[in-house]
């Protein structure tokens, strides 16, 4: 039995025949485990940083696309509102020109234009400008002319 014990002890002896210190063995194992853990933590941190960069890039791209899409939608809505406003403005102008007051003002403008072309007088030109201006203002704005 002594021989078995000597073989077992021989496994833990250094080259010079001295027994290895269990403290040194313990320290080597602890350092190895600690370095493995540190390496694992470093690798995990790098993977997490890479994933965060990918997520940030994807979020930035998503926000850029959404901003572009909403900007295009706002511009389309603005164009639609502008077109509707212009159509309403033209309809209102046509309606005012066709109204009884619009027809009276148009007739007065035409009469004074004819008088100016016929007589070429300063007073006819002033009245033509005044009456035609009243008609244009009424058709454009709807403001009732003052006498």
Proportion of residues in helical segments: over 70%
Query: How many distinct domains?
Result: 2
What's the main sheet like?
A: none
Unreliable spans? none
Tally the beta strands: 0
Kindly name the structural category: mainly alpha
Estimated share of beta-strand residues: under 5%
**Overall geometric form:** rod-shaped
End-to-end distance, in Å?
137 Å
Provide a brief overview of the structure:
The protein is built from four helices and no strands. With 147 residues, it is an all-alpha fold.
Key structural traits:
147 residues; mainly alpha; rod-shaped
Word description of this protein:
The chain is mainly alpha-helical and 147 residues long. The protein folds into 2 domains: 21-56; 78-147, no CATH class. It is 86% helix and 0% strand. It contains 4 helices and no strands. It has helices spanning 2-11, 22-98, 100-119, 122-141. Helix 2 (22-98) crosses helix 4 (122-141) and helix 3 (100-119) runs antiparallel to helix 4 (122-141).
Q: What is the secondary structure topology, with strand pairs?
A:
Layout: H1 2-11, H2 22-98, H3 100-119, H4 122-141
Helix pairs in contact: 2-4, 3-4
